[in-house]
Amino acid sequence: MLSRYLLVGILSSLYSVTAHPTASNSTVDPHTRSLSVCLQIDSATSSKTSVFYPADLLGDLLGFYDTDISHWASSSSQLADCSVRPGTAQDVSTIIQILGQNQTPFAVKGGGHASNPGFSSTTGVHISMTRFSEVTYDSTSQTAVIGSGLIWDDVYTALAPYGVNVVGGRVTGVGVAGFTLGGGYSWLTNQHGLTIDTVVAFELVKPNGDIVNVTETSDSELFFGLK
Predict the structure, then answer these.
(1) Number of helices (H) and strands (E), helices first, in the chain?
(2) Mean pLDDT of all residues belonging to the chain
(3) Continuous H helices in the chain
(4) In degrees rounded to 5, what are phi and psi of residue 170?
(5) Taking the chain, what is the end-to-end CA distance rounded to the nearest angstrom?
(6) Are 22 and 80 in contact (CB under 8 A)?
(7) Taking Cα atoms as reference points, which of 219, 196, 217, 214 lies closest to residue 204?
(8) H runs (alpha helix) in 86-205
(9) 125-151 pLDDT, tens digit each
(10) Long-range Cβ contacts of 143-147 (<8 Å, 24+ apart)
């Protein structure tokens, strides 16, 4: 039984943030302002990150935008001005800083198993963590590095060849990120506690853009706050 794991790619805010524009830009249409930020993000991030737009703007022939904003419950989805798929923690840092500087509403989606609009959706900039999809098992430490863009189905499948499991979701389609930070009640909770109890480290992007590895020894207060 694998009872501990690391969660990578978690942002400092996993829910929508509504910004209040300053006096200098309050007269600008919010969608125009968000679109400008989308273009800025596209220009400032690496080739490992992609920005997608609704089909009636710049085209989305492969459906990436629709996939990014979709949720388990369709009522949870909102039409964002663009969707962003970051590919590295450094790009997440860049995105967060641009959003903060422009006071742009945004949301972050892990697996998308949400039931209400605004939980992981927005009409501003929608960040989809789908490219954070790593599952790496370490038999020596009995831990696994698990990406925040995964659903538990993918995690179970990746760990099955090693004969180990984690304290994860009880039904199909549940995302790793939201389930974990929400506590996480598993079929294995009676034996091993809540999912959040089994996390030993978080890779975190702070609001100021700093990228840190948070453990109980590196920053006990922040580690407690994340739990």
Answers:
(1) 7, 9
(2) 87
(3) 30-44, 64-69, 89-102, 152-159, 176-181, 189-192, 220-226
(4) -95, -20
(5) 21
(6) no
(7) 214
(8) 89-102, 152-159, 176-181, 189-192
(9) 999 999 999 999 999 999 999 999 999
(10) 143/2, 143/4, 143/5, 143/6, 143/200, 144/2, 144/5, 144/6, 145/5, 145/6, 145/8, 146/5, 146/6, 146/7, 146/8, 146/176, 147/8, 147/9, 147/176
Angle in degrees, CA 97, 224, 175, rounded to 5: 65
Are 76 and 114 contacting, i.e. CB atoms less than 8 angstroms apart?
yes
Number of other residues whose CB lies within 10 A of the CB of residue 62: 9
Q: Nearest to residue 126, comparing CAs of 138, 137, 114, 118?
A: 118
* Helix/strand/coil for 198: helix
In angstroms, the CA 162 to CA 138 distance is 10
Residue type, 142: Q
Quote the crossing angle between the two packed helices 30-44 and 89-102, to the nearest 10°: 150
Tens digit of pLDDT for each residue in 61-89? Answer: 668 999 999 999 888 999 999 999 999 99
Tens of pLDDT, residues 29-56 = 888 889 999 999 999 999 999 999 987 5
pLDDT at 57: 56
